[in-house]
Design brief:
By secondary structure, the protein is an alpha/beta fold. The protein is built from 22 helices and 13 strands. Helix 1 packs across helix 4 and helix 13 packs across helix 20. The radius of gyration is 25 Å and the shape is globular.
C-alpha cells in the first residue's frame, strides 16, 4: 500500500512538473520579464509541512513585494526519503525549477551533488552573483572560515549555499543526562570518572530509587536511532576521542583512525563491564528513539536513571519526569576527558539556482537570500511577524547566554490557535551565528518550557572546549567526484563494521582478548588505508 501511494505521488509530481514546464514557456510572461513589466517569475522547489502554505504565507507575500517576485511553488513533504526522491525526479525530468530552497535535516544537495551537477551545467555557480548583488553573504563568507569552506568547492566555485546555523547545544550533541532526583534520594555525588559512573549506575539498579519495591530500574539507556543518542561516544571519550561520525582523528594535520587503536579496545572493555553487570539497557544498541522514549515515559513508575542524548525531550516527554534529568560533564578517563564536537551546520546546498533561471531570476533570488543574511531578514523569514510570533526585548528580559544582549523573544502559540503561516521556518535559517542565538530571550526557570533552550545552553557549557585541539573537520571536506563513490562505499562498510563489532564485543558474542587482532586486521580488507589516503588528500585540498 505504502509503495503504491509513493508511486502515485511520484507520477503526480512528474505530471505537475511537466505542466509547470508548459506554463513557464508562456510568451506573454517571458516578454513581460524582458520588458521589466510585472514581477519576475521564479519556479521554486521547496519542502512544506502541514501547517504552512507557502503560496499564501505572509513572508512569501513580503518577499514578493520587496523583490518584485512571483514565486511559483513546487512542494514536497518533510519526509526525508520522499523529499530526496522527488528532488531527484525534478532534476531527472529535464524541466527542473529555477531555484531549490531546501531544509538540511529534510533533504539538501550533498557536496558531491553540487560538484556533479555544477560540472554538468545543471546548477549555476553563485560567485559573480554574490560579488555583485549579495554584500551580506559576501561578508559572512569572509568572516566565517568554516562556512566558507563548506560553501566553496575545491575549484573555487560556490554551487549552492548551506545554512549557517551555529546552534551551541547542537555543537556538543553527545551528552549524558543523569536522574538528579535519584541522585539526591540516594545521596550520591555527581560522577566524574568511568568508575564513579559505574558505581552510580549500580546504585540505581540495586537501591530502588523509584521506591516501588521492585528492581525495575534501567540504569542507563540510549538508542542508535540518532547519532547523539548512542551510548558509545560519551563513554568512549574517556579513553579515546570518538567524534561519533567519521571515527577519524587529526594530529599535526595527519588524518588517522580511532576504532582500531588500543585505547578503543579499553573503551569497549569498560562499556562491556557495564553491560555485563546489567547497567546498560540491552535495547540501547538496537532500539529506535520511540522505544527509548517509552522507557523514559514509563507510566507505572519512573524507571530510567540516565540516557545519552542531545537533549532530554528526545528520551522523556512526561512533564513529571523530564525535569529530573541534568547533564553531567565528560568523564575523566584513563587517557582523556573529551567531548564530541560537531560543527552544527550541515555541508551541502539548500539554496541552489539552476540553468533554468533567467538572469533576472538569478539576481532577484540572490537578493532574496541575501536579505535573509541580515538580522532583520533572518528574524522576519524564520520567526515571523513582530508582536505575533516574536517580540522585541522588554525590561527584565534575559538572554540565554550570560552577558549577551537580548535580541528577541518568541511568542508561543496558544492552545487551539490556527497556524500563523507567517514565516518560512527552518527553510530560512541561513544566518544564525552564535552571537545571534545567544541573544534569544528565555525564562530564567530552566525547567519550564519557556526556559528549555537556556537549560540546554547551560548544560552545553559543561562540554565546551573539551574536544581535542585538532578535530577532523568532516563538515568542511569536499571529496573529488572521481573518488566520491569509492569513498562512500568504503566509509559505509567501515561504519557498519565498527557498529557490528562494537556490539559483539560489548555483548560478549565476540571476545575482546582473543578476537581483537582479527578485528583490527579486518580493516585492511575494508580498504581503510585507501580511505585514509582519500580523506588526507581531501583535507589537504580543503579551504581551511
Amino acid at each position: 500500500m505504502k509503495k503504491t501511494i509513493m508511486l502515485l505521488f511520484t507520477l503526480m509530481l512528474i505530471v505537475s512538473l511537466a505542466l509547470a514546464g508548459c506554463s513557464s514557456n508562456d510568451k506573454t510572461d517571458v516578454s513581460q520579464q524582458e520588458n521589466g513589466d510585472g514581477p519576475i517569475k521564479i519556479k521554486v522547489f521547496a519542502p512544506q509541512n502541514a501547517e504552512t502554505d507557502l503560496e499564501t504565507n505572509s513572508f512569501t507575500k513580503l518577499a514578493e513585494e520587496k523583490f518584485n517576485l512571483d514565486l511559483e511553488w513546487q512542494t514536497t513533504t518533510f519526509d526525508t526519503t520522499s523529499a530526496s526522491e522527488v528532488r531527484n525526479i525534478a532534476l531527472a525530468s529535464g524541466d527542473f525549477p529555477d531555484l531549490f530552497l531546501l531544509i538540511p535535516w529534510v533533504d539538501q544537495f550533498s557536496q558531491t551533488d553540487l560538484l556533479r551537477y555544477g560540472k554538468q551545467g545543471v546548477i549555476l555557480p553563485l560567485n559573480d552573483l554574490i560579488d555583485k548583488y549579495a554584500p551580506n553573504i559576501k561578508k559572512v563568507l569572509e568572516n566565517h572560515p568554516y562556512y566558507k569552506s563548506m560553501a566553496a568547492a575545491p575549484d573555487g566555485n560556490i554551487y549552492g549555499l548551506p545554512q549557517l546555523n551555529e546552534c551551541f547545544h547542537c555543537s556538543y550533541g553527545n551528552k549524558l543526562w543523569l536522574n538528579s532526583k535519584w541522585m539526591e534520594k540516594l545521596n550520591l555525588q555527581t560522577p566524574s570518572t568511568p568508575e564513579e559512573l559505574k558505581n552510580v549506575l549500580k546504585a540505581f539498579k540495586t537501591q530502588d530509587p523509584n521506591g516501588n519495591g521492585k528492581q525495575d530500574e534501567v540504569p542507563l539507556s540510549g538508542s542508535p536511532g540518532l547519532i547523539e543518542s548512542s551510548v558509545i561516544p560519551y563513554l568512549m571519550n574517556g579513553f579515546i576521542y570518538d567524534d561519533a561520525r567519521s571515527r577519524l582523528l587529526l594530529e599535526n594535520g595527519k588524518v588517522d583512525f580511532a576504532a582500531n587503536k588500543e585505547e578503543w579496545k579499553q573503551g569497549l572493555a569498560y562499556i562491556k563491564s557495564l553491560y555485563d553487570e546489567g547497567l546498560i539497557d540491552k535495547g540501547a544498541f538496537s532500539q529506535n528513539t520511540e522505544a527509548l522514549q517509552k522507557t523514559g515515559n514509563n507510566a507505572d513508575a519512573q524507571i530510567l536513571g540516565a540516557a545519552t542524548s542531545m537533549h532530554p525531550s528526545i528520551f522523556v516527554t512526561e512533564s513529571e519526569y523530564q525535569n529530573d534529568y541534568d547533564a553531567i560533564a565528560p568523564l575523566n578517563g584513563p587517557n582523556s576527558a573529551y567531548a564530541t564536537y560537531n560543527f552544527p551546520s550541515s555541508p551541502g546546498g539548500t539554496f541552489v539556482l539552476t540553468s533554468s533561471a533567467s538572469e533576472e531570476a538569478q539576481i532577484a533570488a540572490i537578493k532574496l537570500v541575501d536579505y535573509m543574511f541580515t538580522q532583520e531578514g533572518q528574524i522576519r523569514s524564520h520567526f515571523g511577524e513582530e508582536d505575533v510570533s516574536w517580540r522585541k526585548p522588554q525590561e527584565g528580559d534575559v538572554a540565554i547566554e550570560e552577558g549577551a544582549e537580548p535580541i528577541l523573544a518568541q511568542i508561543p502559540s496558544k492552545e487551539g490557535e490556527e497556524p500563523r503561516n507567517d514565516n518560512w521556518g527552518s527553510m530560512a535559517q541561513y544566518y544564525q551565528p552564535r552571537d545571534f542565538r545567544d541573544g534569544w530571550i528565555q525564562s530564567t526557570d530552566i525547567y519550564s518550557s519557556a526556559g528549555y533552550e537556556r537549560r540546554l545552553q547551560e548544560a552545553t557549557h559543561l562540554y565546551e572546549g573539551k574536544e581535542p585541539s585538532e578535530v577532523f573537520p568532516h563538515w568542511a571536506i569536499w571529496i573529488d567526484p572521481a573518488v566520491a563513490d569509492e569513498a562512500a562505499m568504503i566509509r559505509t562498510n567501515i561504519e557498519d563494521y565498527i557498529e557490528q563489532n562494537s556490539l559483539q564485543f560489548i555483548t560478549g558474542s565476540k571476545d575482546l582478548e582473543t578476537e581483537w587482532d582479527a578485528y583490527v586486521e579486518g580493516f585492511e580488507q575494508l580498504n581503510l588505508k585507501r580511505y585514509l589516503e582519500i580523506m588526507q588528500e581531501s583535507y589537504d585540498n580543503s579551504n581551511l
